[in-house]
Design goal:
The protein is an alpha/beta fold and 220 residues long. Helix content is 48%, strand content 15%. Strand 5 and strand 6 form a beta hairpin. The protein binds BIS(adenosine)-5'-pentaphosphate.
Length: 220
């Protein structure tokens, strides 16, 4: 990745966007911005934005575009995003992708990576996910267990299952993804900005593929 790049991580719920964004951000030293984590922070703080987003998130629907776009643009105006940033969970509608495109003027550039994973694997991943409400670290009961059950390796916080990781809400999130977010991949593909990686591999292998692609871009 070059400086002043925006890298968009696309993929369905449970594809591994957060897992890979966290690794990539530490490896290449750029900010990781997750709209889901931003909303969960607002929910915990019981802010007016958190209260506005709560019902949508708990039922697996998307938060309205205007709320998401304002929150995201405010976040990426912070100094840690001056050299570039990774977007995890945004854009999720074509209207959000268009708003981001309007904001990114040369020398800034954007690219998108889609992490592809079959539906049956997604459900197993989401049902085993455990997250830390204190530091946002993510684990999996089978593929990435913490050293001590239900205790965060990073900060010692108590791990929880996300409210929207219940089976009926997951089904809703997957159908919302197909209807509203899959067209975002087409948006980037039509502009020649999309790369797909196989996400149905162990996390280290997926990371190698993404890092290899990012280093290639830097060299090029
Ligand atoms: P958000 O938090 O963005 O949820 P999501 O996109 O549904 O994505 P997930 O966090 O479920 O999955 P992920 O791809 O990050 O997977 P992870 O790495 O955790 O959004 C939540 C809600 O907020 C939305 O439903 C919506 O209401 C609202 N929202 C957010 N952004 C919005 C927007 N832009 N517009 C409107 N509304 C918005 O991995 C999952 C599990 O699998 C983990 O346990 C992990 O350890 C494990 N795992 C990861 N990779 C692998 C692997 N390769 N092999 C085995 N296990 C793996």
């Amino acid at each position: 990745m070059t400086e002043r790049s925006v890298l968009v991580l696309l993929g369905p719920p449970g594809a591994g966007k957060g897992t890979q964004a966290d690794r990539l951000s530490k490896s290449v030293g750029i900010a990781h911005v997750s709209t889901g984590d931003l909303f969960r922070g607002h929910l915990s703080a019981n802010s007016s934005l958190g209260r506005a987003a709560k019902g949508y998130m708990e039922s697996g629907q998307l938060v309205p575009d205007d709320l998401v776009i304002d929150m995201l643009f405010d976040r990426v105006s912070k100094p840690d995003c001056e050299k570039g940033y990774l977007l995890d969970g945004f854009p999720r509608t074509v209207a959000q992708a268009q708003a981001l495109e309007r904001r990114i003027a040369p020398p800034w550039r954007q690219r998108a990576i889609e992490i592809a994973v079959p539906d049956e694997v997604l459900v197993a991943r989401i049902s085993g996910r455990r997250t830390c409400p204190k530091c946002n670290a993510s684990f999996h009961t089978v593929s990435l267990p913490p050293a001590k059950p239900d205790v965060c390796d990073a900060c010692g916080g108590a791990l929880v299952q996300r409210a929207d990781d219940q089976a009926d809400v997951v089904r809703k999130r997957l159908s919302v993804y197909r209807e509203q977010t899959a067209p975002v991949s087409v948006f980037y593909s039509q502009r020649g900005l999309l790369t797909r990686v196989d996400g149905n591999l162990p996390p280290d292998r997926v990371f190698e593929a993404i890092l290899g692609w990012a280093q290639n871009k830097k060299a090029g």
